[in-house]
Amino acid sequence: MKRALVLVFVFVLLTGFSGAFAYFQFVMKPEMIKGFIAKAAPPPSTVAVATASTERWAPGLTAIGTARAFQGIDVSSQLAGIVTAIHIGSGQDVAQGAPLFDIDTTVEQADLKNNMATLKNADLALARQQTLTIGGNTAKANVDSALAARDSAAALVEKMRMTIAQKTLIAPFAGRLGIRKVDVGQYVSPGTGLITLQQLDPIYVDFPIPEQSLGLLKEDQPVVVKVDAYPDASFSGKVNIIDARIAAESRSVMVRAEFKNADRRLLPGMFANVNVVAGAARDVVIVPRTAVTYSLYGDSVFVATPKPVATDGAQAATASDPKIFQVARRFVRTGEKREDKVAILEGVKPGEIVVAEGQIKLQNGASVVIDPKAMLHPPAIRQKE
Length: 385
Description:
The protein is an alpha+beta fold. Helix content is 25%, strand content 41%. The longest helix is centred in the first third of the chain and has 38 residues, at 2-39.
């Protein structure tokens, strides 16, 4: 009996010990590990940084514009016919009045001869009536009738000459021709475009400006544009005219700037990045565009400072670890943007270090390690083959 009791006691003891061990192993231990991990500081994140600097910027209005010719047309014929001669080539520069195309005038030339013969006969008839009038042998009404017939025949001759002249197409102004669209022997109908003619010097750039900026605009203001075709070049011009109305659908006003274009680098239809100089230059604090985080709650940057080193685990020493930095989120007010830079009107001072890349994984007060090689650079523009 005693042996049985001992066995029962041992069994109960072992069961309790196993349960306690299982509770510790599967309940308490994971919670302890979780707590240790939660309390442990995360490893420093690797980021790229940039130093806020000061540059002298002239305040400006930026816009997207389109280049258009000072004068530009599609050369077309007023009359139908077959092209009999082409006096120019594609891409050629022509002077005002230079012949471009001839359209067949065979029928018109024959009609002109007929009308000239009628005019000659009308002149003779008028002369006879005038002679008879001197002798009193005809009525004044017959002279008037002969005069009217002569004038009508002369008008028909003039009309036919104008018709023939309209079939010789000339350049209405000096400019550069585009690609020819017709060949000799081709029939063209009235209004058919034969070739384009563009006056490229000077050249216009049209761009919209929001109505709230209308007060900053005035004629002859300096304008600078850049185009994708020449990324390293900029072109200077001036405001030529401001439209007389605000577009109701976009609430913007159309502005036209004029540029000298003697080298013909700007072409009609080019996409242009426009900057209107709207005041005197001033010093502004700038940071890379990638340093600013935009959100509904406001724009912010992470400012990095050397992280203090703890001495006894309780108080921080005045010294700092030169390798590890601590970041703090600051809300900023941004200004104008130019290329890969943005002006900071409030929130950052010159010389402060801001996180330029890698801030998406940061929180306020996080530790970071600066890697100079972490900064990404835009790829070079591929040269056209």
